[in-house]
Amino acid sequence: MQRSNWPALQGRTRLLKMKEWGDLAIMDPDADKPPRRRGFLTAEKDWLHIDAGSALENPIVTLYAGDDPGAEQGWDEVEEITVISTTGFLALCDSGYEPVRKENLATGGVGPYLIRVHAKDRSSEDKKPRFLIQVIPGERSETAPGTPPSTIEEAAGPLLVRTSFEQPEAWARLLQALEKDPERYYSVTVIDNRAYAGFTAGQIQMRIGRDDGDWPDSTLVLIADERALAAVELPLLAVNNLPDDDDEAFRITLAAAGSFVINMELANTSFSDWSRGIGADGIYREEHY
Fold first, then answer.
1. Three-state SS across the chain?
2. Low-confidence winner among 110-124, 133-147, 221-235, 237-251 (lowest mean pLDDT)
C-alpha cells in the first residue's frame, strides 16, 4: 500500500469510532503473515493482533503514539507486548487488515515498540467496548518488569522463552529465522514477555504447568538469554524438562535447533544424545537434515 504522508502523532491522542466491528491489529498493512498463536495480544514482526472479544457494539478506540504516557487506571484488562517494526510503518487496522486511519504509529522508525493495550467491556452485550492503545518506541530499561504469572499459560509442546530484552535486533533476526523454516519450528511456542526478563532455567521450569499426573505441559525448553542473543550463532540454552531427568542444560545454535526440536518431538533421539555432541565451549553446532 502507499505510505501515508500524514505527520506522525508525536504523542497526541486520537479518538476513533470504528465503522466495522471485529478484531484489531497494529501492523504494517503489507505484512504477509498474521500471528500463528491466539490470545488477547499476539505478536509477530510488523504485526500485533488484538482479540476484540465478543461484544456486539462497535468499539471506541483511543490511540497514543510517542513517549511512554504511563499506565492508565480503570480498565478491565491491561497487557503489553513488544513488536519489532522492520519497515518503520505501523497502522491501526480492522479485522480485514485494512487501515482504519493512515497515521504512522511507528514514530521512532525501524525498531522495537512496546505496545500497551487497555480494554474495557470487551465481552459486554449492552455496552460499547473501549480500547486505549499506546505505541511506545524503544526499550524501557528504566521500568521494572511486571510480576510474572505463576504458570506459563501458553505452554504446549517445545517452548522458546525470551529472557533478555537488550538486543531487539538479534531477537528480530531469530524470529525471522523461525518464520523462514516453519516445517521445523511449527510446534514451538514462543514466549515473548518482559515479565520473564533475567529468569534462570530453573525459574522458567517452575512456571511450566503440569497435569493431574504431574506431567509437564512442555518437556523441552529453549531459552533466548543474554548470551544467546549477543552471539551471531544465537546459541540458545536447551533445557530438558522431562520429569526425573537430570540432564545438564547445553547450548545449541539456532541453525541446529530445528533438527533438534523435530527429533526430540518424534522421540527419535534423547536429550542426552545431543548433549554428548557439544563442543569444548558447551555449544552444539552440527546440523542435521
1. CCCCCCCCCCCCEEEEECCCCCCEEEECCCCCCCCCCCCCEEEECCEEEECCCCCCCCCEEEEEECCCCCCCCCCCEEEEEEEEECCCCCEEECCCCCECCCCCCCCCCCEEEEEEEEEECCCCCCCCCEEEEEEEECCCCCCCCCCCCCCCCCCCCCEEEECCCCCHHHHHHHHHHHHHCHHHHCCCEEECCHHHCCCCHHHHHHCCCECCCCCECCCEEEEECHHHHHCCCCCEEEEECCCCCCCCCEEECHHHHHHHHHHHHCCCCCHHHHHCCCCCCCEECCCCC
2. 133-147
